[in-house]
Design brief:
By secondary structure, the chain is an alpha/beta fold. It has eleven helices and eight strands.
């Protein structure tokens, strides 16, 4: 039984390493061609420990890929106008190729105003309305990193999406909504749900693919999962707990992502890869 369970796990670490290796090759080509190193600027507001940890992880992956990482730390009490002004400076800086505003952004900052200050060509985290519009329309773009990473992971495990019923639980503009659009563009039939959806268990029971991104620990119960379904847990809660009751879902599902080690590594690898692509486009280098 243990072997069977291991076979069901969708490990994100190995494909993330391969993606990072490809990104490193892109960075080396850009450096040779343009005599410039691709640079990702991260804006961190406040002193949230989890956010600081995520930023350190992202900076480490940048360095591993041979990319520069620029960190702009701003204190609690920073106003919307102040953060927008700093982002606009980064947007105008030709040596900066990608901009990431670490979220959650503390209140009372208008996070949408901060996101919209990022030029679309440097929106490597896929947070602007312009990027979301392009994702919905199936146009080329630097998509939100978590759903883009999930799509890459589904591809790695040869999950056939054409004609399937996919249920996305979570409607955030940087995860649930772009996730639903990417699945639709892959010819899945998508039901976009959230924590207030009525009869949610019965909806999930009809899903061939379940994407849980609701931000509540063990919210999706094992009894909701259809036999043979693919389960992607995009949640991360204190104690390394996802949004899915992992033990309960393990038996009926055909594939499931662990937490940690599933979606997380793919998210960061996608960010690094998209930054390399952004640098190439801005510098006119064909990869």
């Amino acid at each position: 039984m243990e072997t069977t369970n291991k076979a069901k796990l969708m490990d994100g670490s190995a494909p993330a390493k391969r993606m990072l290796a490809r990104a490193k090759g892109k960075v080396e080509k850009i450096r040779r061609a343009a005599q410039m190193t691709p640079t990702l600027a991260t804006v961190l507001v406040g002193d949230d420990l989890a956010s600081a940890t995520y930023v350190r992880m992202k900076r480490k992956r940048c360095e591993d890929a041979g990319m520069k990482s620029l960190l702009l730390e701003m204190p609690h009490g920073t106003t919307t106008g102040q953060i927008v002004a700093e982002i606009e400076k980064l947007g105008a800086d030709p040596t900066v190729h990608g901009i990431l505003v670490q979220h959650p952004v503390p209140q009372p900052i208008d996070k949408r105003a901060a996101f919209e200050a990022i030029p679309i060509e440097k929106d490597v985290d896929g947070v602007t309305s312009g990027t979301l519009g392009r994702v919905i329309l199936g146009m080329p773009s630097f998509a939100s990193c978590t759903p883009a990473g999930i799509m890459a992971l589904l591809g790695e495990y040869h999950v056939e999406l054409d004609g399937t019923h996919a249920v996305v639980i979570g409607r955030s503009p940087i995860l649930g909504r772009p996730m639903a659009s990417m699945l639709i563009n892959a010819h899945a039939t998508v039901t976009l749900c959230h924590s207030r959806t009525r009869s949610l268990p019965s909806i999930v029971r009809n899903a061939d693919v379940v994407i849980a991104a609701v931000g509540r620990p063990r919210f999706v119960q094992g009894g909701w999962i259809k036999v043979g379904a693919v389960v992607i847990d995009a949640g991360y809660n204190p104690g390394n707990i996802g949004d899915v009751d992992f033990e309960g879902a393990l038996e009926p599902c055909s594939l499931i992502t662990p937490v940690p080690g599933g979606v997380g590594p793919m998210t960061i690898a996608t960010l690094i890869d998209q930054t390399a692509d952004a640098a190439a486009l801005q510098l006119g280098i064909e990869l």
